[in-house]
Here is the input.
Amino acid sequence: MRINVHAGHNADGRTACGAIGFIRESTEARRVKDAVIGMLRQLGHTVYDCTVDDAAGVSDNLRQIIAKCNAHEVDLDVSIHFNSGARDASGNGRTTGTEVFVYSPSSAARTDAEIVCRAIAQLGFQKRGVKYSTGLYVLKHTKAPAMLVECCFVDDRDDVQLYDCQKMAEAIVYGITSQRVHAAEKQPDADQEPIAPREETAIGDKRQLYRVQVGAYAVKGNADATLAKLKAAGFDAIIVNA
Ligand SMILES: [Zn+2]
Here is the structure.
């Protein structure tokens, strides 16, 4: 897949930064964004980072993000945010949780958004669900299907205690690609000699990915049909443009 990913708002410490609670939205959204991009690239996807750190204000930040997003032909735009407004400073034992926005029920990003939301909820966050908004600038102005992920709440003690940047990123990547990145694959073992790229060894190169291909199609609808069959059969399959 080809995917645009950005963290919302300017960077912390600038004007127009994100929400601030126990954690800071702009900072955490950038950490999750970096982890998501790293995992997607590891899985072989083409990813563009469309984050804007130092715009003149809120609307300039949004305009610049859209300009970056729409400069690339992609399958999906992903906007990463954290929510606020829970006002649970003491912790009531329940998270306020996660929600994912798409433009409308007919958005092509809706199914992926539902899987992202479910995957984050499986980490223990309350599932607020997929929501529709025609008013969110990023969802309205991106050329490709788009989703805006509100990972969890910065001002809910329970959310912040549960929040883990890597797990959040893994859930988002799974929702987008149906591919799992497991911790063991992220880094070579510390005590293992690094293997030079392209160097094949008798035991196999851990960094080499072997893809199993089922078919190649000139018509997207035929690829979609095969994908649906594979998914129905329980395979985590994706369509790749080659
Ligand atoms: Zn935000």
